[in-house]
Amino acid sequence: MATPIFYSGTKNASSWAMRAWLALKAAEYPFEEVVVDIRRPQRFINLARIGNISPPACVPVLDTGRTVIFDSNAIMEFANDVSGGRLLPRDPETRAHARALVAWQHTGLSSICHRISFESAFYPFKRALSTEEQTECRRLLDCYEACLADSGGPFLFEDISLADFMHTPTVIRLYRHDVDLRNHPETRCWMETLLAYSWIADWIAEADRLPHIWFDNYLLPNASAASLISIDDNPDIDASPHVGIIDPLPNQNRALVRR
Ligand SMILES: N[C@@H](CCC(=O)N[C@@H](CS)C(=O)NCC(=O)O)C(=O)O
Fold this sequence. Notes:
Low-confidence stretches: 230-235, 237-259
Helix content: 40-55%
Strand order of the largest sheet: 2-1-3-4
CATH class of the largest domain: Mainly Alpha
Number of domains: 2
CATH topology of the largest domain: Glutathione S-transferase Yfyf (Class Pi), Chain A, domain 2
Structural class: alpha+beta
CATH architecture of the largest domain: Up-down Bundle
Shape: globular
Bound molecules: glutathione
Number of helices: 8
């Protein structure tokens, strides 16, 4: 049987791919990874080609050889299934709670800090979160803190679960923008545990080596250079243009990426 293929995205741009990738790794599901370059302008042609196998023409996509799973949440549920249910709590009430956290993120997390993109988490400097953004974060941090108080940690539902993986890109965005955690000590501990978790640390290390993807709306109106924090020029950054176009999918389920 052919090795399953996971169509992932550029590591410093694809928060959806990261979530599904983490769940598959935690489930110890074997796959070949094909990184689809989703940076502009090559994004459009590459995702159009992904459209040959996936109706939404998005990444991530998991082609198991039998089934094409074209949504991150569905891939994560699949990872939980193939792991024998290890990635969600056993108790039905707790499992429903975990799924609610998963769903909150999957449906947009109420747009909390929407200008703080995943891409911006890897910028060599960050702007400070605005007062409004810190206020928006509070209900999310309260929710994390309550979960951790109930479970006793170290993860949201004691053992690592899809809820932790689903929120990992948000953790990276907020932690790297110095979100105020003074009233959320368990959340700080959880975030730091997640950031040190081997698969997460591996993904971040790769993302940190890529050229930055700048967005015009990152800086707030009236932002001054003085509001930028954590200046940290990374000498390891690969400054090559990284323009890659995936070749036409030869037999509907194989793609090659030139890097
Ligand atoms: N609901 C999808 C969303 C995935 C998604 O939006 N992926 C982005 C890249 S991270 C994408 O491919 N977007 C394509 C587009 O904007 O047309 C999922 O959870 O898998």
